[in-house]
Amino acid sequence: MRIVVDLNRCQGYAQCVYLAHEVFKLNGTESLTYDPNPDDARRLQVERAAAACPVRAIMIDRLDGAERGAAS
Amino acid sequence: MPEETPWQQALRYANRADPYPFYAELRKTPVARQPDGTYVVSTYREIVALLHDPRVSSDVRRLPARAPAPAEPGAEPITEAVIELEPNIITCDPPEHDRDRRMMTRHFYGPTDAPHQISDLEPDIRRIVAGLLDGMRGKTRIDVVDEFAYPLPVKLICKILGVPLEDEPRFHTWIETALDALDLGPEAASEEMRSRVAGARGSVKELEQFMAGLLRQYAEQPGPGMISAMVHNGGPGGRMSEGVLASNAVLLLFAGHETTVNLIAHSVLTLLRHPEALEKLRRRPDLIVPAVEELLRFESSVQFWHTRSAVEDIEIAGTTIPAGAPIFLVYGSGNRDPERFTDPDRLDLERPDNEHLGFSQGIHFCFGAPLARLEVQVAVGEFVRRVENPRLVVDPPPYRHNQIFRGPRHVLVDIDGIRD
């Protein structure tokens, strides 16, 4: 699966980190790094993380609309 | 008697089940000065602006002396009762806030490079929820609050903190007595509320002493859970003073379950009021993740927050909030603001762009949000999957008195059975 985080929107709430720490990491207290192509086995975790983002900065499979349809 | 403002009406107990029409009226004046000098902010944009404004303080110690007009007579005693405790992370500002919250975050979620202590609890959560639902077998009527919404969060928070579950009956009574005594509306001056406030002082004191005792016990003999860890390992910022530690431990214990109880109870209530949404969730269980976000928006467990004040004059939405004035941010109203949410009174489990205020925003964003989400996703998801033909018995259900931590006292539901 593919994810994109809008780092201009990200405010460092770290909610995604608590839900999917293998995919999202916080460096220090503010800057977020993430795996843009996490394994599909982590989909539920990543979807939970995206829904938990207070500023809705995490986008899943937006780059390729067909991928989401194929996966679900 | 002068006519009551929409805010005062929203706070009346008779309107607890449905404050939303009064919020709609309130939003016509986004920043509304009340007769007691409090500024009530009810629109999404203004709430968010103030949540990120460094000219707004959350420090409860700034409140009484700086209030420009005397608070309503009945509101005074409980404000005093609250500040007998040292400030906790909700009621203080940076830099103390940042230092204390950072330390608590590490003990709650785990070290920064592997913060998975809370997500690791999912199997425990599933086991507790399964046990609660199994226990309903053979029943035709259940109380969703007492039999389902309450036991899960309280068991979990006790385990996380290291508070003995045997003490639950005691601290439950103290917390309930304290919550029932807080009234910031026109009914605060009533005989009934005054006697509740008198009773609540003792309860707050007992809760504080109970926690102080537990801290001392863990200081002598380390044990499992977050409280013992906080006593022994303050981290780079040093340890918290005993008073601050006790105050934050009380906050974690109380906020760590009360708000979740209300969210689970409101979620079931709301779904039973919207059969098409319930059916959709039954057919598509994966919708539970966005569904919980919508339920957080629709019936927020914290309706507003009351310890903020202006550090200097703040101009906003055509009004100047004078330095020192108390500011109430009404999350429950911002979440129903049509300027931000399309068709806000409609429940839409797939609502796009749902940047709700159910956990607030800014530096005081709900500390326990990841735990609450996990608990409610599992609890409500399993309730929907396993409970056969649930029907509301009383609608609206009776509500608890508290205006901030708003939730039903009971939600009676008739059921046909429990699926495996």
Short description:
The complex is a heterodimer of chains A (72) and B (420). With 72 residues, chain A is an alpha+beta fold. In chain A, 31% of the residues lie in helices and 19% in strands.
Keywords summarizing the entry:
heterodimer; A: alpha+beta; Alpha-Beta Plaits; two-stranded antiparallel sheet; 3 helices; 4 strands; B: alpha+beta; Cytochrome p450; five-stranded mixed β-sheet; three-stranded antiparallel β-sheet; 48% helix; oxidoreductase (chain B); Cyt_P450 (chain B); Cyt_P450_sf (chain B); monooxygenase (chain B); heme (chain B)
Strand content of chain B: 5-15%
User: Going across the major beta sheet of chain A, what is the strand order?
Assistant: 1-4
DSSP helix fraction of chain B: 40-55%
What is the CATH fold-level name of chain B?
Cytochrome p450
Q: Identify the CATH class of chain B.
A: Mainly Alpha
Average predicted local confidence, pLDDT of chain A = 85
> What strand line-up does the widest sheet of chain B have?
1-2-8-5-3
How many structural domains are formed by the residues of chain B?
1
Biggest interface goes to: A-B, 18 and 24 residues
How do the helices and strands follow one another from N- to C-terminus of chain A? Answer: EHEEHEH
Largest sheet of chain B: 5 strands, mixed
Number of helices of chain B: 17
The chain-level mean pLDDT of chain B equals 93
Uncertain runs of chain A: 65-72
